[in-house]
Each structure stands twice: as C-alpha cells, then as structure tokens.
Amino acid sequence: MRSAGLRADYTAAARYLRRREPALYGVVRLQAPAGFLPHALTGASMLGFTDDVCDNGSPADRVRQLDAWTGHVTRALDTGDSHHPLLRAFVHSAGEAGLPRHWFDTYLEGTRIDLEFPGFADEAAYQRYIDTLTWPGIMLSTGLTPNLVPDDDFAASCRLVADACQRTDLLTDLTSDVAEGRFALPRTDLERFGVSRADLEQGRATPAVRELVLATADRARTTLLAAGRVVAEVPADYRPLVRVLLGLYHHRLDVVGAMGADVVRRPVRDNPADCLRLVAQARREPLALSA
C-alpha cells in the first residue's frame, strides 16, 4: 500500500493534468485499469509540466526554467526523492515500471530543441527530432505500461506511435505553429510540392498546399496503421486505453483529410461526438479505424 504522502503526490499530479488537459484526463480516467491509473496520469502530467516549463516566458526565461527543472529531475533520479510532488510520483512510477534512465536523459536534452526550434531541413532532420524528443517523451508515458514482448520490441512499436502522432501534430498545429513563427513541415516537402512559407503564413489554400497536406497525412496514416501492433503487445485490460489513443489520431487524420488545404486557414479541432464514440468503441475488439 502506498504511503499517505505518496498518495498525495499522485493526487497532485492527477489534479494538474485535469486542469491542463481535461479531455486527456477524462479518457485516461475512463480507460486505464484501476491499478495503473495513477501511473498513467502521472506520466502524462510529467510531459505536460515539462512542456509548460519550455513554453512559458521569454527565451531567456525558458532556458533558465529548463535548466532548473532538468536539475530537479536529475537529482530526483539520482536520489529517488524530490521536493516536487509531481516528480516524486513520477520517479516512483518509473521505478515500479523499470523504465531505463536513458529515456529521461534523452528527453530532457531533446526538449532544448524546442527552445529555439530551427525547423526541419528534410525528412532526416525530422526523424532525428523523433529520436531525440518525441520518442523518449512517449516512453516516459507509454513506457510505464506493462508489455508482453521484449522491451526493445515494445520500444520500437512506441517509436512508430511517436512518429505517427508527431507527423499528425504537424498538420493539426499548422496554423498555430506558423503564427508563432514555427515552420515544422520539412522544407524539402514544401519544395517538392511547390509550397512557399508565404503560402502558409498567408493561409493560401492552393492545390499545391492541398497536395502537401494530403501527402503528409497519408504518410502519418501509414505509420499509424503500422503502430497498431502495439495493441497486441500490452495485456488485455490495457488495450482499451491504447486503442482510444490511437483512434484519436486516426480521427484527427480523418478531419485533416476532410479539410485539405484549409488546415492553413484554421486549426484542426476534435469532434466531441466522435471522441465519445471512440471511447465507447475502445472496449470492443477490434476498434474500427480508417484505412
């Protein structure tokens, strides 16, 4: 049985996630097995808190904040304790799951890329970003899940999830990224389809932009379908949570496909009714996904 102090730490982490991402909190709360729920909420909270550290304040503030947070995490990993309740809970969860230390170190180092995001010159640069930030981040949450295959095989499946979700996010976040001066679609992709930065900045829904968007979405879909193997790699009572999270990204790609070039004019929004349907279907096997 967990101590009262540790229970309070997990409660603090859950409350943080509920405030920051109520939809994600609700999905995890409904789908995660009872015994795993505190770990699932804490893993998501750890990622959200680190994002907040990197996103708030001036560039100099963000560097100082990340340096301080990295120091807190490193000391917590070295000593097993921290003054920060969210971090205490997360270190405990990671210890119970046997999560290797290198995922922490790689993720924290990778977060520095986003402090002054340079964009992706080509697909190889995008894939390096997956390896140094997105994949380790996925492992700090999904990696807490028990698995039925060798750890290296499970991690490889999680990398497919990371790649598919990140490429989908490039499209769903396109308008907000461009507004902030972030051009996250690989430059070689823009050049291949004859799309300029000005097209994105000015929200030009041209045929070339449509081709770029749909090609990117198709690539994300292919990877997401391959990532579906992860469902069979976790115990049966964990599968509804994994299915609904994968299904959410299939839903987002459906929306992107319907919007086409309009993703440069307005953000992609989740359809609440479709999200509820995903939650309801996630306990059925298999979950119907778009091909």
TrEMBL record:
Chain ranges passing through the membrane: none
Extent of the signal sequence: none
One Pfam family hit: SQS_PSY
Organism superkingdom: Bacteria
InterPro entries membership: Isoprenoid_synthase_dom_sf (IPR008949), Squ/phyt_synthse (IPR002060)
UniProt-listed PANTHER family: BIFUNCTIONAL LYCOPENE CYCLASE/PHYTOENE SYNTHASE (PTHR31480)
Protein known as: Phytoene synthase
Originating organism: Streptomyces tremellae
